[in-house]
Design goal:
By secondary structure, this protein is α/β, with parallel strands linked by helices. The chain has two domains: 139 residues, Rossmann fold (3-Layer(aba) Sandwich), CATH 3.40.50; 182 residues, Rossmann fold. The chain is built from 13 helices and twelve strands. It has a seven-stranded parallel sheet, with helices on both faces. The protein is elongated, with a radius of gyration of 21 Å. The C terminus is likely disordered. The structure holds (2R)-2,3-dihydroxypropanoic acid. (2R)-2,3-dihydroxypropanoic acid binds next to loops.
């Protein structure tokens, strides 16, 4: 009797030519159109498969895997994995993987772009022009803040944070960072960055960028009290996870002029965005696209495919997925190496 081929579920349409490698080893249940899967839908999809390739849109926790008796591996297409309950997966012996490294530079590029857009009011100025409100060159119109020569604050100094720090050298910025643990001296030197405590970071940053993992400990870490410690002229950029910022407090701070401007690529209830944020002019809003260059998104899928093939014991790296998630790691961007994220 022919041996049963393992079955895998691919939760969203990704890049067909990249995902095609799964067909060499497995029967593939590929979702054909972008869709939201609720908990029952994920549980049903996982019910009869050996592995799954999922995105941050799919939550995979205790309930979703309760009846997934064959499930052996979940490959997340994303570096952040707060959509996965790692303890629950590991307790069942299910391997979980993510896609670090391949998106570091692209995401750092975008973090820098958002910070610049917030400082120089790029999207606000474009809306002004498109709405026909530009009445001629206005010497004092839409004035912003400089990046060059200013102080950059980075909260979360993993690989993406370090990428942003390296970019800041070209702008002759002073770079301060705060992280769960201080980086080794050689990395600090490479990044030209100085470690400070959280309050000093808030108080001294002209531009604060959030790149830390999302966990219970970082939930709303940027709240009204933290915002009150920032300079009124400062900008805040979030490319990590929405839940890190108390969005109501941010809307208050931006609306009252307590904070100059912000840029958000991630939202606590995404894809829903707080209407108070939508109504503000001094905020740049993008739909979670920091890793979204074509080459990087393809590389993320390719790594997730490698992970799934190896985790299910097939291919040249059988049994050794390239980027497994370690037990007890916290689930956010840069979270593979908890000591440095
Ligand atoms: C990630 O990988 O965590 C991003 O947020 C999605 O691209």
């Amino acid at each position: 009797m022919a041996e049963r081929r393992p079955r895998v579920w691919v939760s969203q349409p990704l890049f067909d030519d990249v995902v095609a490698r799964l067909h060499d080893h497995f029967d593939v249940d590929q979702v054909a159109a972008v869709r939201e899967h609720d908990a029952a839908g994920v549980a049903a999809a996982l019910g009869d498969v050996d592995g799954a390739l999922v995105t941050l849109n799919e939550r995979v926790g205790r309930d979703e895997i309760a009846n997934a008796t064959k499930l052996r591996a979940v490959a997340n297409v994303g570096v952040g994995y707060n959509n996965l309950d790692i303890d629950a997966l590991h307790a069942r012996g299910i391997v979980a993987t993510n896609t670090p490294d391949v998106l570091t530079e692209t995401t750092a590029d975008f973090g820098f772009a958002l910070m610049m857009a917030a400082a120089r009011r790029v999207t606000e100025a474009e809306r002004h022009l498109r709405a026909g409100r530009w009445q001629g060159w206005n010497f004092k119109g839409l004035l912003g803040a400089d990046l060059h020569g200013s102080t950059l604050g980075i909260l979360g100094m993993g690989r993406i944070g370090q990428g942003i720090a390296r970019r800041a050298s070209g702008f002759e910025m002073r770079v301060l960072y705060h992280n769960r643990s201080r980086l080794p001296a050689d990395i600090e030197r490479d990044c030209n960055a100085s470690y400070v405590d959280f309050d000093t970071l808030l108080a001294q940053a002209d531009h604060l960028v959030l790149v830390l993992p999302y966990s219970a400990a970082s939930h709303h870490i940027v709240d009204a009290a933290a915002l009150a410690k920032m300079k009124p002229t400062a900008t805040l950029t979030n490319i990590a996870r929405g839940g890190i910022v108390d969005e109501a407090a941010l809307a208050d701070a931006l609306g009252s002029g307590r904070l100059a401007s912000a840029a958000l690529d991630v939202f606590e209830g995404e894809p829903a965005v707080d209407p108070r944020l939508l109504a503000l002019d001094n905020i740049v809003l993008t739909p979670h696209i920091a890793s979204g260059s074509l080459a990087t998104r393809r590389a993320m899928v390719a790594l997730a495919v490698d992970n799934l093939i190896a985790a299910l014991g097939a291919g040249p790296e059988a049994g050794r997925p390239p980027t497994p998630i370690a037990p007890a790691a916290t689930g956010g961007k840069d979270a593979k190496r908890p000591g440095t994220a």
